[in-house]
Input
Amino acid sequence: MRQQPLFIATRFHPLGGKDLGPDSSLDPGVQAIWKKALELGLIIELHMDSTYAHPVANMLRQYPESTVVVDHLAGLNHFARDEPHYLSARPFTRRVIAEFGPDQLVWGSDTPGIVDAHMPEFSEQDRLKVKGGNLVRLLGFE
Output
């Protein structure tokens, strides 16, 4: 049996920042951690709000080899109240799905059927990728 790594990712949890514009960068300490994570082959997990979009985009341009997971997709329950599937958020989720496609998405949820509710036009095979198949591939558990 192959031994699994003890660490697979490092999480950045910046919230409530100030958008510094398209040329902004992350704090030098955060940049150093990002670089070390890449050296160690770790996934960069981002749990952040949109105020960090420019600095993160700049890091991704500088380090395109980064494997990044955007955690919680901003938390649908923060702006939609129609549980359990938050169908009012579909304009937002459709844009994310269109930008990244089913091969680049992982959607974990405590709500069975939420992926199906937000991706009805996709094949079952594509929805299975999003429900965990992509994560299996990303973590090298295939």
Residues 124-138 form the longest helix (15 residues). The mean pLDDT is 88. The two ends are 13 Å apart (CA to CA). Strands lie at 9-12, 43-46, 68-70.
